Amino acid sequence: MSTAKARTAHARAILGPELHDQLSNTRVLLVGAGGIGCELLKNIVLTGFGEITLLDLDTIDLSNLNRQFLFKKKDVKQSKALVAAQTASAFNPNVRIIPIHDNIKEPQYDIQWFQKFDIVLNALDNLDARRHVNKMCMAAQVPLVESGTAGYLGQVQPLLMDRTECFDCIPKSTPKTFPVCTIRSTPSQPIHCIVWSKSYLMGQLFGEDEDAVGELDEAEKQGENAREIETLRNEAQAFKAVRTALRSSSSSDAAKMVFQKVFNADIKNLLVMEDMWRSRAPPTPLDFDTIMNETLTLKDNLELFVSRCVWLGCCSCNFQSHLRLSLSTNRLAARLKGGEDTISFDKDDDDTLDFVTASSNLRSTAYGIGTKTRWEMAGNIIPAIATTNAIVSGLIVLQALHLLRKTYDKMRNVHLQFKPAVPLSTITLSPPNPACGICRDTYALLLCDPSRAVLGDVIKGLLGDDKREVSVYEDKRILSDPDLDDNNERTLESLNVTRGKFLAIVDEEGDRATISVGLGVLP
Ligand SMILES: Nc1ncnc2c1ncn2[C@@H]1O[C@H](COP(=O)(O)OP(=O)(O)OP(=O)(O)O)[C@@H](O)[C@H]1O
Ligand SMILES: [Zn+2]
């Protein structure tokens, strides 16, 4: 048998010649080239899908290599989409892979762009992008397979407009957020200190050189305490000196500077605002040398302490946090000096995990809140498991084949569960939720020049002789309603309604489905 025939012989035998031939003419969009994406790309290349567009916005990180097998150490910092496409192309010369290094939410990936594909496969890691692709697939009427993994658990769900539930038919809970002031000045639970450390302190010290003032402006608008916000503004500005010390080769005690600023000076500044502490227990400023000296009275046991506490992560006493903070800060500072521009929290990066464990525990101590060991901290962070990704990627292909063959009654919502005896559970698909604000809309495509098209004309054009009363929205912004026609003379561009966005035309009586008009460009 020739090489080309041998390569496809098994796939052809399993799929049957008809489906196999169909696949070689199938155009698929794969969004995400991370843990699931790499596995899935390998699968669909070997199955024989003809043309694969692979899109991912990210570059390869060292911590990806343990499970994203299309990448090697030499590829770190390169585009995930480009490298994955290059590696996987070699698996099957009959497949064309088109890599795109970009965000799927960019406006050029509009309805018409999605309509080019026969099927879309999601291999994403966040709700926002998943919801976006879901909406685009509903608007473009392109079948979608949605997927996700978390540790040993996984899920695969085929989605098809008018036939199955869409991703948004059942509202998903969004990750919990806390008010800025709770995180920055009045934490009362360990989680507040962890969020502070991961998303604020890490950014201020090791992230992009941005002042955290925008977030505070927003908090002030939302009515959070103005004086408290003013203090937090000064606190954020005072990070400059510490940032410089962390990056300068002459500074040897950057860890002490970090400590004194965040656990001593900043806390003292907050204590000045007495009225804040009338109804809650005030924090206690910590001192770098005092904790060190207290510890040194245990000098004889120091070695034991270091080996047991720090490396086993068995306790979260002040000494351990103190030492762990110093060591991890020095390691992170060395990385900055060694050429890393920014470092952000990554669960696979021990230096950042240590830094977050230590700094959030020291903050908890200052505020009299319970501390967490490194194990507990890591326990809250779900590791990515390569085999889970591999199983889920196989299931995605099976569901994709049902969608392409149109054997809809065979499609299932599949869960990978932590039950060795029954690792997979399958659920028959539910029909669309009649109240869904995404897949129950009627979609239309409008090709126009937004600098010339006028809102009022667009509405009239769409409704024709239909005289019903409507309100018009772009996302959550209301643009017009029966009592507000000021915008009707304005161009879409002046209203910031441009390519890739949707105008939602909502029936005032609520009798008819919302018309969702996606904007595309003129040929
Ligand atoms: N809006 C988006 N547009 C394009 N690609 C996206 C978008 N959002 C997320 N992604 C990509 O989806 C992929 C998800 O893969 P995965 O969950 O393995 O993430 P990771 O960052 O590689 O690993 P981990 O989060 O486990 O450390 C990532 O490569 C990410 O860049
Ligand atoms: Zn829906």
From TrEMBL:
ATP binds at residues 32-37, 56, 64-67, 80, 125-130. One of its GO terms (molecular function) is metal ion binding. Belongs to the ubiquitin-activating E1 family. Residues 14-436 form the THIF-type NAD/FAD binding fold domain. Heterodimer. The keyword Hydrolase does not apply. This is Ubiquitin-activating enzyme E1-like. Zn(2+) binds at residues 166, 169, 436, 439. The keyword Transmembrane applies. Keywords: ATP-binding, Membrane, Metal-binding, Nucleotide-binding, Transmembrane, Transmembrane helix, Ubl conjugation pathway, Zinc. One of its GO terms (biological process) is protein sumoylation. Pathway: Protein modification; protein sumoylation. The chain crosses the membrane at residues 381-404. Residues 341-376 form the Ubiquitin-activating enzyme SCCH domain. The lineage of its organism: Eukaryota, Fungi, Dikarya, Basidiomycota, Agaricomycotina.
